[in-house]
Amino acid sequence: MTESNQPFIELRGLSKEFMHRGKYLQVLRDVDFRIFAGDQIAIMGPSGAGKSTLLQLLGTLDTPTSGQMLWNGEDVFSRRKAVLAGLRNREIGFVFQFHHLLPEFTALENVMMPGLIGRMGKRAAESRGKELLEMVGLKERVHHQPGELSGGEQQRVAIARALFREPRLLLADEPTGNLDLRTAAGIHAILRELNETTGVTVVIVTHDPSLAENMPIRVLVDQGRLIPQHPGDPNVAGRIPEELMNARPQDPGQLRLVEAVSDGDSTTTQGPS
Ligand SMILES: Nc1ncnc2c1ncn2[C@@H]1O[C@H](COP(=O)(O)OP(=O)(O)OP(=O)(O)O)[C@@H](O)[C@H]1O
Ligand SMILES: [Mg+2]
To answer: Which pLDDT value is given to residue 266?
Structure first.
């Protein structure tokens, strides 16, 4: 883990609300969070807490209701859409619970896909694809199609594909959610190893405490805030605000419903007062 004073990514007062049956559902509330280059972070929290929402924002796949996200000090969401898409394609790799591999292509072709889309030469893409498959331990499986691979192997192909363009940030949303614990542990080990060998910053959402235990930095999404999984955990220091360092989880899963505010429109039915 390398650390400098300047965070790689900084969330400042980031909030996200969704409109839900005429009311705003506040999922993330004034989140301040700093990620340093090379961090390995596990994000945990009950279902519906906002983990995927947070990951989508980190991946610039969604925009916040308010607040900022800085990349090396630069406000990301103020950039033009095309610039943002460029940043996303170049700098961010995504791995999801379901791998989304193309079934009619081989492992190698799936991994090469970002290169081919990016108009890289076929030879170069192939050699980079092979190198990555070797890195995730699939040297002997390059010509297998997804249907000819185990669940864990498919997920390793997805990881290799996510790394194709050498992203600086790898975001994984429950990448092992549909794998048995042993296979899942293997995937986590690979992600940690990639972090150590390539320096890629890794943020993983996981439900599994035993997998999260292996990640050096563990935070919970709780009541729309980010708090340390273990109050006072020194590994989290400097990444979340000091006043939240000793916070403990509150009532899990209780999201805040905020009344919709509408100018002069009183059609929203209110209960008897
Ligand atoms: N587009 C949307 N519109 C309205 N509400 C949404 C939308 N996306 C998410 N939500 C709500 O926001 C809350 C947080 O969702 P999110 O997917 O981030 O949860 P999560 O922590 O990833 O849960 P899980 O562990 O089940 O994947 C949920 O209550 C969800 O219903
Ligand atoms: Mg989720």
So the answer is: 38
DSSP 192-246: HHHHHHH--EEEEE-S-HHHHTTSSEEEEEETTEEEESSTT-GGGBTTB-GGGTT
CA distance 26 to 181: 33
Spatial separation of the C-alpha atoms in residues 42 and 218, rounded to whole Å: 5
Report which DSSP code applies to 105. S
Q: Are residues 169 and 58 in contact, defined by beta-carbon separation less than 8 angstroms?
A: yes
Which CATH code for domain 9-259? Answer: 3.40.50.300
Tens of pLDDT, residue by residue over 227-269, are 999 999 999 999 999 999 999 988 555 555 555 444 444 333 3
Average pLDDT over residues 38-67: 95
Nearest CA to ligand 1 atom 27: 47
Ligand 1 binding residues, C-beta < 6 A: 18, 20, 25, 27, 45, 47-53, 255
DSSP state of 23: E
Kind and range of the H or E element at 169?
A: strand 169-173
In angstroms, what is the span from residue 47 Cα to ligand 1's centroid?
Answer: 8
Q: Which ligand is nearest to the CA of 23?
A: 1
